Amino acid sequence: MSLKRKTLELLKRREQVQMGGGEAAIQKQTAMGKLTARERILSLVDKDSFHEYDLFVEHEARDFDMDKKILAGDGVIIGTGTIFGAPICIYAQDFTVAGGSLGLMHARKITKIMDHAMKLQVPIIGINDSGGARIQEGVNSLAGYGEIFYRNTMASGFIPQISVILGPCAGGAVYSPALTDYVFVVDKISKMFITGPEVIKSVLGEEISQEDLGGARVHSEITGNAHFFAESEKECFEQIKKLITFIPWNNQRKARTFKSKEPRKSYKIDEIVPGDPKQPYDVRDVIKSVVDDSDFFEIMENWARNVIIGFGRLDGETVGFVANQPLVLAGVLDVDSSDKAARFIRYCDAFNIPIITLVDLPGYLPGVDQEHAGVIRHGAKMLYAYSEATVAKISIILRKAYGGGYIAMNSRHLHADFVFAWPGAEIAVMGPEGAANIIFKKEISEAEDPEKMRKQKVKEYKEKFANPYVAAAKGYIDSVIEPEETRKFLLHAIKLSSDKNEDRPRKKHGIPPF
Amino acid sequence: MEQNFKTLNIDNTKYKTLLTSKFENRKAWEKPDENKMLSFIPGTIRKVSVAEGQKVKEGEVLIILEAMKVENKILSPKNGIIKLVNIKTGDKVPKSHLLLEFK
Description:
The complex is a heterodimer of chains A (about 525) and B (about 100). Chain A is α/β, with parallel strands linked by helices. Chain A contains 20 helices and 17 strands.
């Protein structure tokens, strides 16, 4: 046989395997509103950049007549490509082949591309669409999951790991996404749970649909398991591509820099924050009034909305924002928001992304439910994450900064590098009303007109302490700045921090309050 | 910004803000009633060994609750009289469901 004929044979073999589970199965996939695994990869990576490996891998299962079954690529596609020129490794489970079930060779393909990503030190993207373990392969399936989890853990903080849930992802399979940095879900397509509706019904008699139990909205709004929600697969891929532009390829690099662009004129930084600390506003407008092109890429938009996290750029360089959101729950810290912010702080620290903290909070949320849900250990995550981080840490106190919340929000005392405050900042142990009631309890109760006395004492306290100058007098704040100067101060702080280095005591690892 | 603003009181200061559904739907805390026995895990009632009005001793088996393929013996926490039996054999119960009440 000539090389030409052999090449033709290769093409024929390729074509066969690339059909996945065959036309009928593909039609079924399409009818569910889903793209095929191959279409997904091709819509995510740069044109003509995808290179596939292990196309001809076959399973070795023999039991239950499995030896008579051929499963194209063993139900998963792996390869490499680029996204806006950035190198990535990728895998996509193919639901048209045995329901994307995970057997030994399927898992080996995934771990192979993960190992590849670790050696090349580039991001790994996993597209999940699988019915779960391939039951016919028994304990080999479990071994496969375990090997993936181990690699997820080894890769954590070393290379970016992105999980995309585009179908069912149930049982043990959900733990790989949970170990990765970012989980993307799509409305009506993504389903994640440990035990599905049928098991729940048989054990508890509770009836619930897959969507209500673990659909995209549930994980974006209730559980906090997902970081990005999209209405369609197309929108989801756009989100992933955008995320890739903000993060570095590995933990020894910085994110790529882009051309600097002034914020849009429509955001007027001095008109956003009301003078009265009891009035709400959207802190995202403050972020948009300082970042390049007013482009803020928010993460976990719909969960724990009382704190805002996400990426923007300053002079072309990626920065991470953590901001109290006075619009929701007055911007308090609580169990969920502490969890959300702390993890993001650790992400930024792992991947050399400076952290900018915008402070405006009344403190921690009071309540039995919060205390019983462990707000102590969850709140402590914030203190841990900020103290531990060695990337540039810059705070701007926009308005109120009271009590424990003030300490937790990247205060000087947790060794922030730069702490700036706007003229309307109030750094105090608590709000004037609460403080006056305690300090002047006796005077108020013994006064002829207690209400009048109370008001007077609140006023006195406000005048004396509700300002940035008490903290500035101690050096807890570096500069009190005009709102319009914010971008200038931030650009300067980022520029000065490019070679920032801080040593930490030698240890295997700390024990954060997980 | 016309939104459904509410008031959140923190340290005697009333903040104008949006509330989350999680916050609004939180359950008010109640002191647990020592006379009420609640299920500690969801499952199926396999056996009820007591009747209303019956005297029971501390440590006596009152109910067998099967959950996660394990039969759990629910023992009496004290000497007392059963006032109410709220379940019967075969019932599927959620977590924190009232099983028995003591007098």
